[in-house]
Amino acid sequence: MNLIEEFNTYRGQMNEKIMAADNKVIKRFFNLDTNTYAAGAVNVKTKEMIGLACSMVLRCDDCIKYHLGKSFEEGLSKEELFEVFSIATVIGGSIVIPHLRRAVEYWEELENTVK
Where is the Carboxymuconolactone decarboxylase-like domain (predicted)? Predict the structure, then answer.
């Protein structure tokens, strides 16, 4: 199983278990997250780039993978990707670099899915 399949399978399985608990607060938070990244005054691609930069600064590898996948789906180019990476690195500092490495590896996996 590759990085993408492993991440998506685990995320899906665990989200099902979380939602099965039927907790109103958690469900509302998940819904808030979904609606935040929907198209509005700011397009989805831009929102995903913002989410990716913030996730890198916050050092959340799961969030980084999620936003990389969504950014890929939205047609983010490699040049745009590295501009997002540069913003995250400037804001977050050198602590972002290990996450940058893993993000590049994950992006390469995404690129390999279309070859």
Answer: 27-105
